[in-house]
């Protein structure tokens, strides 16, 4: 099924308006492949008719499904490991307690990122810290969020994951579930799941010590990226951190954060200096 220029432009503007996705020239093939299946399965004559259906659906379900199909959910446990080394360092140096530790995994996909965060914090602070740790795991994709909530992963998802951690944090499937692992309830309890579209105002969110917003802003254009960073920054505690994907440098962009090391930024205290004790010593690179 061919995707006309007009149809592409219409899908492009819907994706930009509702999810901030920047479907540039050259993405026609991706759009056609990802949405062609929906057009055929839904019995639509062409992309135009499918777009009419999406626009007319006042429940927002068709739009959410379209955005779901257009986004990439690729993720893995301990992805970009330097960030998890960094998290362990600040946990040990700055988050020992006794207060709550609040972390936001702002585009958590199928959950590997927030579970990795929980595991690293427990490894560093010990199991007694579990009650202090609250991790908000959010994504625009309801399909990805459901997988994150289920917390069931195939054995091959654990490549490179420390072998000793597997029985500590996951239950091994048996019978029909052989080859699968499920997150233990005590780990899952540390996470709260919510559908949050980064394009929309953040309502009812607390402030956070650390925000992981990784490998999602790459899909946004520059003004959208800057707006998202500005609104996330407002939710970060002074002295807290924003971690972006390593290909999402904020260098050259408008923001009020201090660069700490690649893809790690810190919100300064009022007055422009940081109270963190290990200033300049946290990064291994
Ligand atoms: C490539 S995954 C990144 C997952 C994880 N952060 C990581 O680095 O491994 C990108 C995720 O961003 C989500 N996403 C895309 N646009 C979004 C938006 N406007 N608001 C919230 N999440 C969005 C997608 O659904 C997808 O799960």
CATH topology of the largest domain: Rossmann fold
The first-level CATH class of the largest domain is given as Alpha Beta
Helix content: 25-40%
- Overall geometry comes to globular
Mean pLDDT: 92
Largest sheet: 7 strands, mixed
Tell me what the structure shows.
This protein has 285 residues and is an alpha/beta fold. It folds into two domains: 5-70, Chemotaxis receptor methyltransferase CheR, N-terminal domain (Chemotaxis Receptor Methyltransferase Cher, domain 1, Orthogonal Bundle); 81-266, Rossmann fold (3-Layer(aba) Sandwich). The protein is 38% helix and 17% strand. The protein has helices at residues 5-19, 28-41, 47-56, 61-70, 81-94, 112-125, 142-150, 165-169, 185-188, 222-233; strands spanning 101-105, 133-139, 152-154, 170-172, 180-183, 191-195, 208-213, 236-244, 258-261, 264-266. It has a seven-stranded mixed beta sheet. The protein has a three-stranded antiparallel beta sheet with strand order 3-5-4. The longest helix has 15 residues, at 5-19. The chain is globular and about 60 Å long. Bound molecules: S-adenosylmethionine. The site of S-adenosylmethionine (SAM) has 23 residues, from loops. S-adenosylmethionine binds at residues 19-20, 71-75, 79, 107, 109, 113, 139-141, 144, 197-199, 214-216, 219, 245.
């Amino acid at each position: 099924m061919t995707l006309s220029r007009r149809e592409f432009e219409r899908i492009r503007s819907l994706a930009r308006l509702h999810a901030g996705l920047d479907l540039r020239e050259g993405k026609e093939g991706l759009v056609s492949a990802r949405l062609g299946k929906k057009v055929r399965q839904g019995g639509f004559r062409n992309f135009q008719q499918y777009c009419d259906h999406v626009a007319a659906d006042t429940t927002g379900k068709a739009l959410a499904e379209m955005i779901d199909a257009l986004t990439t959910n690729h993720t893995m446990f301990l992805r970009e490991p330097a960030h998890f080394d960094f998290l362990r360092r600040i946990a040990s140096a700055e988050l020992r307690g006794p207060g709550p530790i609040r972390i936001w995994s702002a585009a958590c996909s199928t959950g590997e990122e927030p579970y990795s965060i929980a595991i690293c914090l427990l490894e560093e602070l010990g199991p007694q810290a579990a009650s202090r740790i609250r991790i908000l795991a959010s994504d625009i994709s309801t399909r990805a969020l459901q997988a994150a909530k289920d917390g069931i992963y195939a054995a091959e998802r654990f490549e490179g994951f420390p072998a000793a951690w597997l029985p500590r944090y996951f239950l091994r499937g048996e019978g029909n579930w052989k080859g699968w692992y499920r997150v233990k309830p005590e780990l899952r309890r540390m996470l709260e799941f919510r559908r949050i579209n980064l394009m929309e105002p953040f309502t009812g969110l607390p402030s956070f010590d650390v925000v992981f917003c990784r490998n999602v802003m790459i899909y946004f254009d520059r003004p959208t990226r800057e707006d998202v960073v500005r609104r996330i920054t407002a939710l970060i505690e002074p002295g807290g951190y924003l971690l972006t994907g390593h290909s999402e440098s904020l260098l050259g962009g408008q923001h009020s954060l201090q660069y700490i090391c690649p893809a790690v930024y810190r919100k300064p205290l009022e007055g422009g200096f940081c109270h963190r004790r290990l200033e300049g010593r946290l990064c291994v690179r």
